[in-house]
Write a structure and sequence with these properties.
Blueprint lengths: L5 E5 L4 H16 L3 E6 L15 E3 L10 H25 L3 E4 L6 H10 L3 E5 L6 H6 L5 E4 L9 H4 L2 E3 L6 H7 L12 E5 L2 H18 L2 H4 L2 E6 L2 H14 L2 E5 L5 H7 L2 E4 L3 H10 L3 E3 L9 H11 L3 E3 L7 H12 L2 H12 L6 H13 L2
Parallel strand pairs: 1-2, 1-4, 2-3, 4-5, 5-6, 6-7, 8-9, 8-11, 9-10, 11-12, 12-13
Length: 366
């Protein structure tokens, strides 16, 4: 009995990398292929497509500093990871290895290169991430979520295909839900999310901004906000005092459905968030994470802003006064929210998983 070809997916152990890998895995399995995931130990907490018996943990490390010790530690860890990945290639003999970004993709894709196994990378950001930038010249094909990512590098652009960001089934289901414009003086559903690195600034800025709004808006708000446990009491105190209808939690397992039911989103602009806002088509106020070397979140937010689907506010300008002004203007202009939802939707690609799977099968010659 001949077994079907295996595609090894490699991704960093965060949702921004794992969710697109999961979406591609679902599509490849639908086509009769086998899939496994090579990642770091963080992904063992993951409860999506990949069960623990489908996951191979490969040691890796991120460059977190420029000291000799930090660089040596990262180099040694990646070398050990590459050795583990070489054994993985011998054992699994994948038809192709597909990387979704993050330093945990380096060992599997470098091992694939040494074995002559076709390699692909996918980048969801508007600028190529550091790990993918290192790998770009060593793989057979590059898939991007957004057009123009490699326009300044003709050699890499020649092997690049814009496919979008593969969307997990929950997002595809949420994308079917049409945007409902708020009625004048009717309820306004506001969703505030920030991810692990962004929830603190939302806790610092959003409550005082809400307090600055006209009291007539307080009664309209149906607010859902991601809040870290250590910030919960102070955020809750503000909303209770203002009698805001607010649901607060450190994490929402049903975030796609909450995105679909929202009428305005305030968020960081990670690649996954921007792609999901585009796929579902929801207006947003985006606050890029500052300090990133390649300013990827700033560029990501710019894509939605250029499509008139979002307002981009740099964090230095993200004050309670600025946010209150923007919220007041949008609450008074439902037609603008509707137009922003339509603008965001023009960025979304719901067939990205199918397009990515087509590219994988082409490169793997399946």
């Amino acid at each position: 009995m001949t077994t079907s070809p295996l595609i090894l997916l490699a991704a960093g152990g965060t949702g921004g990398h794992l969710f697109p890998a999961e979406a591609l895995g679902v599509e490849l399995m639908r086509r009769g292929l086998r899939v496994r995931l090579a990642t770091d130990a963080r992904a063992l907490r993951y409860s999506g497509l990949f069960s623990k018996d489908m996951i191979d943990v490969v040691p890796s490390a991120t460059v977190r500093g420029r000291t000799p010790w930090s660089l040596a530690y990262t180099g040694i860890t990646l070398a050990v990871g590459t050795g583990v990945a070489l054994n993985l290639m011998r054992r699994l003999k994948p038809a192709a290895v597909v990387g979704f970004g993050g330093y945990p993709t380096l060992p599997p894709l470098l091992a694939a290169k040494l074995f002559g196994i076709p390699g692909l990378i996918h980048d969801a950001n508007a600028v190529l991430g550091r790990a993918n930038r290192f790998l770009a010249g060593r793989v057979s094909a590059i898939a991007t979520s957004l057009p123009g990512v490699l326009d300044r590098d003709p050699e890499l652009a020649a092997k690049a295909t814009t496919v979008g960001t593969p969307m997990r089934p929950a997002i595809l289901a949420a994308a079917v839900v049409k945007f409902v414009s708020p009625e004048a003086n009717g309820p306004l559903r506001l969703l505030v999310i920030g991810g692990s690195q962004g929830a603190r600034v939302m806790a610092d800025i959003v409550p005082p901004a809400i307090e600055m709004l006209d009291p007539s808006i307080w009664g309209r708000l149906i607010l859902t906000q991601q809040v870290r446990e250590e910030d919960m009491a102070r955020v809750r105190a503000v909303y209770d005092r203002l009698k805001i209808n607010a649901e607060l939690a450190p994490f929402f397992s049903d975030l796609p459905a909450r995105l679909a039911s929202s009428q305005l989103v305030v968020s960081r602009s990670g690649a996954g968030t921007v792609a999901e806002l585009g796929a579902i088509g929801r207006p947003s106020i985006l606050v890029p994470l500052p300090g990133a070397i390649d300013q990827d979140q700033f560029a990501n937010a710019g894509v939605l802003a250029q499509a008139n689907g979002a307002l981009r506010i740099p964090q230095v300008e993200f004050t309670p006064e600025r946010l209150a002004a923007e919220l007041s203007a949008l609450a008074a202009d439902p037609a603008r929210l509707t137009a922003m939802a339509a603008g965001a939707r023009t960025v979304g690609r719901l067939d990205a998983a199918e397009r990515m799977a087509d590219l994988v099968m082409k490169v793997a010659k399946i």
